[in-house]
Every structure is written in C-alpha cells, then in structure tokens.
Amino acid sequence: MTADPYQTRVSSVETLLPRPDPVVFGEHGPLEPEQLKRYDTDGYLVLEELFDRQVVGEALGELEHLVALEGNREDPRFIWEPGSTQLKSIFEIHRISEFFRRLIGDTRLTGRAAQILGSEVYVHQTRVNLKPGFDGTDFYWHSDFETWHAEDGMPTPRALSVVLALTENLPINGPLMVIPGSHRTFVSCTGETPEANYRTSLVRQEIGLPSQQTLSRLAELGGVVQCLARPGTAIVFDSNLMHGSTGNITPFPRQSLFVVFNSVENALSEPFSAPARRPEFLAARDFTPLG
Predict the structure, then answer these.
(1) Signal sequence: where (predicted)?
(2) For a FRET experiment, which of 10, 45, 58, 234 has its CA 20 to 30 Å from that of 101?
(3) How far apart are CA 202 and CA 186, in angstroms?
(4) Domains in the chain, ordered, with CATH?
C-alpha cells in the first residue's frame, strides 16, 4: 500500500510538507495560458463579472425565498450564526433549489474547472455563505483539502472551489482573503478528529487549523490578498490554498455562492483521519460527471 503523502491529525507536531501533486492538469479550454500559469503560481484567479446582473438578481431572489422557507431551523443543511437568528450558510443548495442546480452546471463554471483539473468533474459540495451585516462571523485561516482529506477521504488536492459573488465583496465586509502560493505546501495539522466534528466545525472550526507560526511563515513568503469582487465575479481557488475571512460588523452583507468541483479521477475513499464519513450534504458520494 502506498504511503499517504498528506497525513494529518496523526501527530502532536505540526509539519509542512511540499505538495507532490500538480496544480494544473489540463491545457485547452476557456482559460488563457497566462491565466493557467497565474493559477499554477498563485493558487487562485479572479474572473471579473463572469455572470451579468440579471443572473445575480435572480440568484438573490431565489436566496431570499430559501431563507424564508418554513422548517429550515430543523434542516441540518441550514447553518445559523452563533446566538443569532441570522443564517450563516446553506449547504447542498443545488439539491434544494432548481435555479442553483442549473447555475452550478453552467459551462462558464464547469468548463474552467474541467480545464484546470484535466478531467470531467463532479460536485463535491455546494453552499451559500451569507455573511450577514453586523452578525457575520469570521472564517479562520484553513486549507479546505486538509479537512476533505481527513474527514471525507479525498485522496489528493485535485479539486477547486469557485466563489461567485452575489453582493459587493468590499474591504470592509469580510471578503475572502488568500495567501498566494500557499497551495504548494500541505500543512499537516495536530490533534485528532472528534466524532461528528462537523456539527461544531460548520459554526466555528477548531480542528485542522494551522498554527500562527505556520501562517506567519506562509504569509511572509506569499503575502495576504483580499479578493474584492463585484456581483457576478467568480474567484477560483485551489483546494489546498490557505484562505479565510474576517467578521462583518458593517450593515452590508457579503453573500457568495461556493461550488466545489472535484475530478472524477479523485473520487472519495474512506476518511483518512476521522472515525466516520461526514454527511453527503458536506461531501457528495455521487461521482457522476457534470454534463
């Protein structure tokens, strides 16, 4: 059996490991060679106003409808801000909403994902983060792949996220922040994964987080960039890129659609460092490629 090059949550010592896998797997597609090169180097791309205001308006209208649905307090896919009546996130939104299912399958998203990943892709996870005004809490620095590997059984970081801005992502309302180049270093985190860790981590993640010393080292090498975006702009970033966001104490919500595309050649196995699989609304096990 081949040794796991991305071991994490198995030691009391944090380790920084060079990424053995490529970042960009494909060549031909809608992205220009210079964009692919930038993605390979930095780990992310900002695609200005990929969708027009009409699509964004329809998305916001559908989101308003979903927020008002009766019974969403009992639905585990609806995550609430701590001690608040404000929604934090809605997961598996492409299963809840036909509009978002069609939007997520748009070739403007799937074509770029397939080009970067060099294969057909399927949806690993979807959600809307609402980051409400005044109550929007922070998302601490983390690598998504560390969690997906440890808790979902994703073998390698051959996956990416697309963040579609539905409102203005301003410097003041908690925009996505990234550390360019950090996707080429895998941070093997300390500690063990508690049973059903997702129940608390969706509200505030505490397991699988890098130390301040490691974050400082990565930031010294790559800096920290705020991904500001007008509505309709898409931010594409590698699954191992270190990212986070501050809280939002302004009146202006920061609402964004998140879609995680995984290569069909990188389908999930059993969790590498967790006692059991997470629910399918967090880690889909239908590996059917998107048309």
Answers:
(1) none
(2) 45
(3) 22
(4) 15-166+183-266 (2.60.120.620)
* Tokens linked to 82: 């701590």
The Cα–Cα gap between 260 and 263 comes to 10
- Name residue, tokens 């057909």: 120
Alpha helices in the chain (DSSP H): 33-42, 53-67, 93-96, 98-104, 107-117, 144-147, 198-201, 212-222
* pTM for this predicted structure: 0.95
Residue 77 neighbours by CB distance under 10 Å: 17
Across residues 122-146, what is the average pLDDT?
93
φ/ψ region of 130 (left if φ > 0, alpha if ψ in -120 to 50, else beta) reads alpha
DSSP 155-177: -SS-EEEEEEESS-B-TTS---E
Mean pLDDT computed over 156-175: 97
Residue at 205: amino acid letter: Q
Q: Which of 253, 271, 263, 107 is nearest to 198 (CA)?
A: 271
Q: Which amino acid is present at 80? A: W
What is d(CA 59, CA 103) in angstroms, rounded to the nearest whole number?
A: 9
Residue closest to 17 by CA, chosen among 34, 3, 27, 33: 3
Q: Is the pLDDT of residue 20 over 70?
A: yes
Q: How far is CA 113 from CA 13, 109, 175, 208, in A?
A: 34, 6, 22, 26
